[in-house]
Amino acid sequence: MAASNWDQRYREGSDRWELGRPAPPLQAFLRTDSRAPQPPGRVLVPGCGRGHEAALLADLGYEVIGLDFSSEAIQRAQVLHGSDRAGLRWLQADLFDEAALEAAGISAASLQGVLEHTCFCAIDPAQREAYLDTARRLLAPGGWLLGLFWCHQRPDGPPWGSAPALLAQQLAAAGFRQELWEPAQGSAPERDHEWLGLWRR
Ligand SMILES: C[S@@+](CC[C@H](N)C(=O)[O-])C[C@H]1O[C@@H](n2cnc3c(N)ncnc32)[C@H](O)[C@@H]1O
């Protein structure tokens, strides 16, 4: 779906994915789980929407880039979480536009972390390999990909579902080493079949 379609959804208020807070399983994992990656580090949140996870990471002490190709999303994130806050910046760009990322200083091996929440299920499934290749390219060796993945089995989308076993294979094929991949705990009531995963480059 094009950026303009996402803009329209934000404008119409038909952005039914909005939780109004960081996804509970990600928040609990990052704040309390001994297996969670630790700051400092430079972290990208692709498809950040209103930026709740980006702001959470900044609160935890990371240097965060919230990226979204929807200008409406970025404007809402700025209003909610500030446009001039230390450790948190917003970037309106397409995740797959390598030149735009490079121009913003997001180049190969320049990140310690990527946090995924409902961007992977929003893009066309045909772009998933490109998403994983991009994340791997941008991460420094040892860098992490933490994600909450929507593993519903409904045939249509967005949000497009994932099969847990297949997703684990796709990540391995993209060069990621799995540290954690399990059904998420404490998902928001409107979210079924979420899985939480942590991988290293
Ligand atoms: C379902 S929304 C989720 C937003 C946010 N992650 C959340 O959970 O509230 C998906 C977001 O991904 C953004 N997006 C989709 N494809 C993108 C791309 N190729 N590059 C950057 N952002 C993208 C959309 O504009 C939208 O804001």
Q: What's the mean pLDDT score?
A: 97
Q: How much strand?
A: 15-25%
- Low-pLDDT parts are none
SS summary, helix count: 7
Count of the separate structural domains:
1
Radius of gyration: 15 Å
Label the CATH architecture: 3-Layer(aba) Sandwich
CATH topology: Rossmann fold
- For this structure, the quaternary state is single chain
List cofactors, ions and other ligands: S-adenosylmethionine
Ends distance:
28 Å
Order of helices and strands: HHEHEHEHEHEHEE
Major β-sheet, in short? Answer: 7 strands, mixed
Structure description:
- With 201 residues, this protein is an alpha/beta fold.
- It has one domain: Vaccinia Virus protein VP39 (Rossmann fold, 3-Layer(aba) Sandwich), CATH 3.40.50.
- The protein is 33% helix and 24% strand.
- It is built from 7 helices and 7 strands.
- It has a 7-stranded mixed sheet with strand order 3-2-1-4-5-7-6, with helices on both faces.
- The longest helix is centred in the middle third of the chain and has 11 residues.
- The chain is globular and about 35 Å long.
- The two termini are 28 Å apart.
- The model has no long low-confidence stretch (mean pLDDT 97).
- It binds S-adenosylmethionine (SAM).
- The site of S-adenosylmethionine has 21 residues, from strand 2.
